[in-house]
Amino acid sequence: MTFPRALRRRTAALAVSVALAATAGVGAAPAATAAPAAPATPATAAVPGFRFTDIPGSGGITLKANVLTPAGADGTHRYPAVILPSSWALNDLEYLAQAERLADSGYVVVSYTSRGFWLSGGRIEVGGAPDVADVSKVVDWTLAHTPADPAHIGMAGVSYGAGLSLLGAAHDKRIKAVVALSGWADLVGSIYSGRTQHLQAAAVLGASGYLTGRPGDQLQRTLADFLASRYDKEADMITWGKERSPATYVSQLNANGTAVMLGNAWGDSLFNPNQLADFYERLRTPKRLELRPGDHATAEATGLFGLPNDAWTDARRWLDHYLKGADNGVDREAPVRLESRTGGGYEGYPSWSAVASRTERLALGARNALGTGALGGGAAPGWSTTIGTAFDSGADGGIVFLSQLADQLAKVPPMASIPLLPRQVAAVWQSAPSATARRIRGTVHLHTTLTSTADRSTVVAYLYDVDALGVGRLVTHAPRTYVGQPAGRPVTVDLDLFSTAYDVPAGHRLALVVDTADPLYITHNPAGSRLTFSSPAGDPSWLSVPTR
Asked: Which part of the chain is the Xaa-Pro dipeptidyl-peptidase C-terminal domain (predicted)?
C-alpha cells in the first residue's frame, strides 16, 4: 500500500511534534531502560520503507532507532547512508520529515535516540567515549542490516546530534561527510566562555536532561561543580569539556578528509558562533560554514516539520555531492555563507577571515558631565571610570532562546534606553552619529584596563545600535570573569564579543556599555566591590569594530 506524500508529511510532522515536546518538559524518560541489547526486531509503521528497530550500542546497551530505505530497495543494490543521532532531550522521531526526504532521493537513513535519553539504554555521557563508540556501533549495524554502501556513509544532526556527528566522524574513517547544525565545536568555549558560567544555558540543558533521560555520574558532578562556581574544580571541568569537544580532534577529521558542513545562528544561546568559526578555520577538509539570525536550533526548526528550510536544503545538497557525487555546484560556491540579522539576503565569502574588509578602532574617552564617555572621534587616554556592582544596570543579553528568536522572527533584539542606564553601575561610551551605514561583520573586540577592589570580578560588555531617541538595540555582547587576581592590581581586558552580522543605519550611534550583572550568567562580584576602567597613556582603551 502506498501512502500519499501529503499524508506522509503530516505523519512526519506529528512525530516531530511529539519529539519536540521534550524540550518543554512534557513527559519524562522511563526510570529503567538500560537493558542489554536485543536482536533487531523491525516493526511495521505507517510510512512505506519505515521501521522501528533496536541497535546494539557500546557496552551492551540498546539504542532505539528507526530506519528508512529507498522505495523499491530489494537488497540487490547498495545506497549511500545517512545516520542521524537525536538532539539533546529528543528521540529518534525528531528527523522523520528530513529522513523521508533523504530516503525518497535514494538514501538509507538510520535515526537513533542518543544513549541515556528516553528508551535508549545507558546514561547521558555528553559526547563521551561511550557515545563515540555508539556511532561506530550504529555504522556497523547499518552495514549489516540495510542495503547501505560502506564507501558512502554520512552523518547529520542538530544540536547534540551535530556534536555527536563531528565526534563520531573524527574517530571513524568510514564517515565521509558530516552536516552539523547548531552544534558545538568547543564545549568549554560554548557554555564557559570568558571563564563565566552560562547559567541559563546550563540550567536548560540540565533540567531537560533530567526530565527526559538519565545523566551519568560524571555529568552530575560536573554540572553541580559548574553551577556552584567551583573554581577549585575548574581544571577538571575543562578537561571533561575538552574530551567532548570536536575541536580537540580536528587533526583526525583533517586526516580522515571528512567533508564538514557547519550551520549555526548568530544568537545561539548554547553554542556561540566564535567557537564554531575558530573550528572552521582549523579544518583542512572540504568545508562550509553557514550563519543565520536566530537562537539555538531555530534556524533549522521548520525543516524538522517538513517545511521549506534553507539550512536543510543546503544540508541535502552537501550530502548529495559528497556521498552521491552529484555535480550540484555546492563545492564551487563561496564556503562561508552569512545572513545579516538586519536582512538583505545571503552573502558569500572565501573564508571567515575575509568576512570583514576593514576594522575601525574606536578609542574610549573620559566621562562627560552626563556620565558618558566618547567612543572614537579622537578620544584621548589618561582617564579612569569607576562603577559599583550592586545590581544589574538594565543592559543585558536577554532571555535564553526567546530573545534571539524574537530577533530572528521580528527583528526585535534586546533593547535598552542608553541615556537612562544608571551610570553608578554601568560604564557607557557613545560615538557620534555615523554619516554612513556601518555593516558590522565578524568579531568586535574590547581592550581596556580593569582594577577591582576584590580578588574576583565579572564584567559584561554590550554593543548597541542607538537611534535618535537613545533606544539601543543589542548588536552583540560577551562576559569575562577574573578569579584570583590581587585586589587593587590592574588587569588587561581583551574580550572578543560574540561574532555577528548587523547593519547599523546611517545617523545612528554605537554605544559600548560595560556592567557587572546579567541574568544569562553567573557573575562574581562580591557585595560592595567596585570596578575601575582606565586608559593609561601607554596602553589606551579601545573598541575594534569589523566592517565591510
From this structure: 316-543
Confidence (pLDDT) at 37: 42
- The residues near 369 (Cβ < 8 Å, ≥ 6 apart) are none
Q: Which one-letter DSSP state was computed for residue 497? A: P
The DSSP H or E segment spanning 438 is strand 438-442
pLDDT for 47: 53
- Going from the C-alpha of 432 to that of each of 380, 395, 435, 461, the distances in angstroms are 15, 20, 9, 19
Instruction: Kindly state the average pLDDT of the residues 191-209.
Output: 97
How many whole angstroms separate alpha carbon 524 and alpha carbon 452? Answer: 11
| Spans of all domains in the chain | 5-349, 358-547
SS3 for 35? coil
Cβ-based neighbours of 448, under 8 Å, separated by 6 or more: 364, 492, 493, 533, 534, 535, 541, 542
pLDDT band for position 73 (cuts 50, 70, 90): confident
Q: Give the other-Cβ count within 10 Å of 1's Cβ.
A: 4
pTM to 2 decimals? 0.92
Please report where in the chains the cell 548597541 appears, as a residue: 464
How many other CB atoms are there within 10 angstroms of residue 524's CB atom? 21
Identify the CATH assignment for 358-547 out of 1.10.1670.10, 2.60.120.260, 3.40.47.10, 3.10.150.10: 2.60.120.260
Whether pLDDT at 211 is above 90: yes
Cα distance between residue 309 and residue 196, in whole Å: 34
* Helix 310-324 / helix 96-104 crossing angle, nearest 10 deg: 40
Q: Which residues pair with 346 in a beta bridge?
A: 339
Distance CA 345, CA 222 (A): 41
Terminus-to-terminus CA distance in the chain, angstroms? 57
Helix/strand/coil for 190: helix
User: DSSP character for 36?
Assistant: B
Q: What is the CATH topology of the domain spanning 5-349?
A: Rossmann fold (3.40.50)
Residue 336 contacts residue 355 (beta carbons within 8 Å): yes
Q: Which of 260, 259, 277, 256 is nearest to 268 (CA)?
A: 277
pLDDT at 29 > cutoff 80: no
Q: In one letter, which amino acid is 488?
A: G
pLDDT reading at 204 higher than 80 = yes
At residue 18, does pLDDT exceed 70? no
DSSP single-letter state for residue 431: P
Which of 270, 290, 292 is closest to 280 using CA atoms? 290
